Each structure stands twice: as structure tokens, then as C-alpha cells.
Amino acid sequence: MALGGLAGINCHCQWGLSGILVGLVVILAAGVFTALPVFFDWFAYQWYYALCWFWFLLGVALLAFGLIYEACCNKGTKAREIDGVEEDGTGVISAPTPYIMIQ
């Protein structure tokens, strides 16, 4: 169960995809906040640069985790489709009859 049962029974958490998307967002945000002291000379402090590097590396770690999880640990799709069942219960699937207009 996801999160030790805290997420509920029906939780089909997308850890890999979430890691990829959140990692990309964090990397882009770190880039935007790094551009402030570089181009506009705002917040030009050493601790600010260190925080920008921290957020960038956190985004890289999340992105790497998401890619590795999708490549190695993904269990495939979880579709719930029924194969070969027609509405009348015969099990034979046929194409629908085309409609012909009466003139």
C-alpha cells in the first residue's frame, strides 16, 4: 500500500511520473530564482546562491529518481478492460451494422 496505508486502498500512485514532473518544475524554478541575482543584481548573497544550488540538485535528484523508477520499477498499465464480451453475452464481437437512410 502506498505511504504505509495512509493514501487509502484505491491509491494507484504514479511515483515515477510524479518524480519526473516535480523534478522538472523544481529545476525550472531554481533557474528562475538564479536568474534574479545574475541578470538583475537582486539577492546577490552567497547563501542565496547556495539555496539555488540546493533546489537545483533536489530537482535533479527527483528527476533521476522518477526516470529510474519508470525504467526499472514500473509494473505497466492497470487497465480494466473485458476481452471478448458482447452485450448479449455470446462472447462474439462483431462490427456494428452501418445505418442506411431510407429515401
Q: What does this entry look like structurally?
A:
- The protein is built from two helices and no strands.
- 51% of the residues lie in helices and 0% in strands.
- Helix 1 (15-39) runs antiparallel to helix 2.
- It has 103 residues and is mainly α.
- The radius of gyration is 25 Å and the shape is elongated.
- The mean pLDDT is 81.
Helix and strand pattern: HH
Distance between the termini: 61 Å
Rg over CA atoms, rounded to whole Å, is 25 Å
Enumerate the spans where pLDDT stays under 50 for 5 or more consecutive residues. Answer: none
Q: What is the number of helical segments per DSSP (H or I, 4+ residues)? A: 2
Shape: elongated
Task: Note the main sheet.
Answer: none
Percent of residues in helices: 40-55%
Structural class of the secondary structure composition? mainly alpha
Q: Round the mean pLDDT to the nearest integer and report it.
A: 81
The beta-strand count equals 0
Which percent band covers the strand fraction? under 5%
Properties at a glance:
mainly alpha, single chain, elongated, 51% helix, 103 residues
Topology (SSEs and partners):
Blueprint: H1 15-39, H2 46-73
Write a short abstract of this structure.
With 103 residues, the chain is mainly alpha-helical. It contains 2 helices and no strands.
